[in-house]
Specification:
The structure holds 2 protein chains of 2 kinds. By secondary structure, chain A is α+β, with helices and mostly antiparallel strands. Helices cover about 60% and strands about 20% of the residues of chain A. Chain A has 14 helices and 12 strands. In chain A, a hairpin with a 5-residue loop joins β4 (about 220-235) and β5. In chain A, α9 packs parallel to α14 (about 460-470). In chain B, strands 2-1-3-4-5 form a 5-stranded parallel β-sheet, with helices on both faces. In chain B, α1 crosses α5. The chains are: A alpha+beta, B alpha/beta.
Chain lengths: ~500, ~140
């Protein structure tokens, strides 16, 4: 609407393009020139009246300067036209037309031009004002929508007036009609008077409150909320309005409860899966005991009675059942490591390492391995059983993955690293390519199935166990040069603090 | 086998019963071998044995997972009625909690059933010839 009206105004009064203005100016001059002769004859010396026409047109087209210059130039122009008609031009203009008439023409031309300029300026102001108004309305719409559609309850209040605006979320929260909420003092929402006091004090002091925890009277009930508000001031720094929002944290509580329930369900599911793994492994082993037991009995007691090929077959069965047993035992160990109740306490690494090494005495002797253990490895806060399994696995790996013909050399050392105690087990084994490192800790990944026997569960047990003890495990490895496995655990509490961790 | 004259195996898996019997028959032929599949029949046998010939010179080998009451129930019962027969606990898959439970109930050993015949022989040697045992008893190591 506004746009159309403005165009109408401009189209009817203001001629914009320059060529059109010049065209109209020339046209009016031509009309004047053509009308001069007959009108001169009829109207006598009404030259100045006739001159008004093109001067008014010039003022209208070109503004104040156009009107002024047109008026001034009309004087010599009239003199010229009169002299062309055989009259004494100058003396006639000055004498009979009169200085007053010429001055009138100049004044009228200038006034018309001034009016035109004023109109143009007014039009420009109107346009700008409308544009500003439209922009304002757009931002107003935008923020109004933000306010109205926000899921966070929001309000605007004024000093002495109470709430002057509230969004839908707030109305929903308070279960009230907007009219019931207007004029209400924000202080009335607070259940504890102290909370309300703090709200105003903070607003007064800092100009804002952020996530002020407060219990609010909401609808018929009391809710735990976080209140955020800020003061808006005018040019004189006087508070004009307060704008605030309320977050209902009892909702967060339900979310929290939901998350907790889900976690419990997941834990339950994982627990059941672990129990399943355990009972499957257990039952597998029951039958394995029978198969392996009888096969190895045949092997050790009746081998000589069997033909050569049968002996070969039997040997395969016996070996397979041993491997199967290792595998099932590892699975059982894994599920035990996962399920065992932890009893973290001070564990001396010196003792733990030598205990783990004692279970590997056979391997060390077989391979004639050189194992060097640093003195004073320190003590960690860990579960002794779990740590034992971890060390056994790491040390047995270090001894196992060494190429035939190379003497295994294993070095165990420790150092403090930040707030953790880091234990390192270095070997001179086959190592792995760097890109294979992430696969090492995955269950059933066997990177060297052809060269070394294994179940692929050992490092998974290590990782799971260390993880359960809030530790970390990792490896740096170089192909054919060896690996260094490290594990980081919290150091033991100083003695005297036992049982308080 | 200096002290042990008889052995009662409480085991519900018939194959495992045969396996143990074979180990004993081959390596400890003079030993009296008795087997019962569950706690109820085992307690009955032990009562009768006590009444007949007494419980001296006996060893109990008890599986944990029996159909019905577990091997631990038998140990508890033994404790209740003051039957003093050394008992070792056998299980298909050892675990720390069971091991603790077993020793708490006065078991002389807690072993995982071996898959290898030779290991079975070694295990029974530990049970039947305790004076030959090392100070550090391999069999009581348990994973957990």
């Amino acid at each position: 609407m506004a746009v159309e009206r403005r165009n109408l105004f401009r189209a009817s009064l203001i001629i914009e393009p320059l060529w059109r203005r010049w065209g109209l100016a020339l046209l009016s001059l031509a009309v004047y020139a053509v009308a001069f002769v007959p009108l001169y004859g009829r109207a006598g010396v009404g030259v100045s009246a006739l001159s008004l026409f093109p001067v008014v047109v010039l003022g209208w087209l070109f503004g104040a300067w156009g009107g002024l210059l047109g008026g001034i130039f009309s004087v010599p122009l009239n003199a010229l036209l009169l002299s062309l008609m055989g009259e004494p031009g100058w003396s006639m203009v000055v004498g009979s037309v009169g200085a007053e008439g010429s001055a009138l023409v100049v004044v009228v031309g200038s006034v018309v031009g001034l009016l035109r300029d004023l109109g143009l300026r007014l039009d420009r102001h109107l346009t700008e004002w409308r544009r500003a108004e439209r922009a304002l309305r757009e931002t107003e719409d935008r923020y109004r929508l933000l306010f109205e559609h926000s899921r966070d309850p929001m309000f605007v209040s004024r000093p002495g007036e109470g709430i002057v605006d509230a969004n839908d979320a707030l109305l929903r929260l308070f279960e009230r009609q907007k009219t019931n909420l207007l004029q209400v003092d924000v202080t009335d929402f607070f259940v504890e008077a102290a909370d309300g006091e703090r709200y105003w004090q903070e607003l007064e002091r800092a100009g804002f409150v952020e996530d002020l925890p407060a219990r609010l009277r909401v609808g018929g009930e009391v809710m735990d909320c976080l209140v955020t508000a800020s003061a808006r001031r005018d040019g004189q720094r006087r508070v004009v309005e307060y704008q605030g929002s309320i977050r209902d944290v009892s909702d967060n509580h339900t979310l929290h409860a939901l998350a907790e329930r889900r976690t419990r369900e997941l834990e339950q599911a994982v627990h059941e899966l672990e129990a399943f793994t355990y009972s499957v492994s257990h039952d597998l082993r029951t039958h394995l005991v029978t198969m392996g037991g009888f096969a190895s009995m045949l092997w050790s007691e009746h081998r000589e009675d069997l033909p050569g090929q049968a002996q070969d077959f039997l040997g395969r069965i016996v070996r397979a059942s041993r491997r199967m047993d290792e595998f099932v035992q590892d699975l059982l160990q894994y599920s035990r490591v996962t399920r065992a109740d932890l009893e973290p306490r001070r564990v001396e690494l010196d003792e733990a390492v030598s205990e783990a090494l004692s279970t590997l005495e056979g391997v060390v002797a077989d391979r004639q391995a050189r194992v060097s253990v640093e003195d004073d490895l320190g003590a960690v806060h860990a579960d002794a059983h779990l740590l034992g399994r971890v060390l056994e696995n790491l040390l047995s790996n270090a001894l196992k993955f060494v190429p035939e013909g190379r003497t295994p050399e294993v070095a165990v050392r420790s150092r403090l690293r930040g707030r953790r105690l880091r234990l390192e087990v270095e070997d001179n084994g086959v190592g792995v390519e760097e890109e294979q490192v992430p696969r090492m800790f995955q269950a059933f990944e066997r990177l060297e199935p052809a060269r070394f026997r294994g179940t692929g569960v050992g490092l998974t047990i290590v990782e799971r166990a260390v993880d359960r003890m809030d530790g970390e495990v990792g490896v740096s490895s170089k192909r054919d040069e060896g690996s260094t496995f490290w594990l980081e655990l919290p150091p033991a509490l100083p003695s005297g603090f036992e049982g308080q961790g | 086998m200096v002290d042990v004259d008889w052995l009662l195996l409480v085991e519900d898996d018939p194959d495992h019963r045969v396996l143990l019997e074979e180990v004993l028959r081959r390596h400890w032929p003079g030993l009296g071998f008795h087997e019962r599949p569950d706690v109820a029949t085992a307690t009955r046998w032990l009562r009768e044995r006590k009444a007949d010939a007494g419980l001296d010179g006996g060893v109990l080998v008890v599986d944990v997972g029996l159909g019905g009451p577990s091997g631990f129930h038998l140990l508890e019962w033994m404790d209740d009625v003051d039957f003093e027969v050394p008992a070792v606990v056998l299980t298909a898959s050892r675990n720390a909690m069971d091991a603790e439970h077993a020793f708490h109930l006065g078991a002389a050993g807690y072993f995982q059933k071996p898959v290898d015949f030779g290991d079975y022989v070694n295990l029974l040697r530990q049970v039947l010839e305790p004076e030959d045992r090392d100070d550090e008893d391999e069999g009581t190591h348990y994973g957990g």
